[in-house]
Automatic annotation (TrEMBL):
This is Manganese transporter. Pfam families: ABC-3 (PF00950). One of its GO terms (cellular component) is ATP-binding cassette (ABC) transporter complex. The chain crosses the membrane at residues 38-57, 62-79, 91-111, 132-157, 177-202, 214-235, 241-260. It is a multi-pass membrane protein. One of its GO terms (biological process) is response to zinc ion.
Amino acid sequence: MLEVLGYPFFQRALLAGLLVSLLGGALSAFVVQRRLSFLGDGLAHAAFAGVALGLFLREEPLYLALPFTLAVALAITYVKERSGLSEDTAIGVFFALSVALGAVFLAKARGYVGDAMGYLFGSLLAVGPGDLWAVGGVVLLGLALLPLWGALAYATFDRELALADRVPVGLHDYLLSAYLALALVVAVKVVGVLLVAAFLVIPGAAARLLGRTFAGMTLLALLFAFSATLLGLYASFLLDWPSGASVVLAQALLFGLAFLKTAFSGGK
């Protein structure tokens, strides 16, 4: 492992993977506990529609994917709050819309299909300095929002009581959706549209099986996310596997071990 760390491209991949894992692990507990797994898929496809729009307009894809995904995240929350429709229904509508728009933009972006495939599957080993700055900026923004963690956790477990205590639950829903969108967009470049939702679901799902409190669940999700990144990147280098897929397979392995522990111990 020490020999591998001597390669600059692996150093960038490791740093990017750990930063994305920090984002995914911190948000994963909220995604799992609030049952927002489908939202991760919906926003990932919204990001791809934004990327396709960037390819069509011959602009930097992530510059357009960011506002596009952010707009979709806020629109989903707005429709859910104002229409009375369930959240998964609102997500389904914008999921389909994003896929359709992405297909149209991609069909018109002649000569850029190869670039689009790169965003579909991502590549941690092709991370550049700009990608690291983008992920790092979103991590710093998350640190600035850390004082809201308690209120978000409160509303996650008892939304009605939080409303009764005059916690601005609606505003926090918008902020959480917006931050999920930002995290997904910066992660798409290194993980890929098809796998990025796994970073928001699997660590939290494994932690949910073992954690006794929400704080404990969050810490376990971070531990699982970091461990899977280290294991997955090392396996990717040794076995010549796609880096993003290797990390997700490592996450799935940790989930399987957590499930077996819970199943054979009769619960937590």
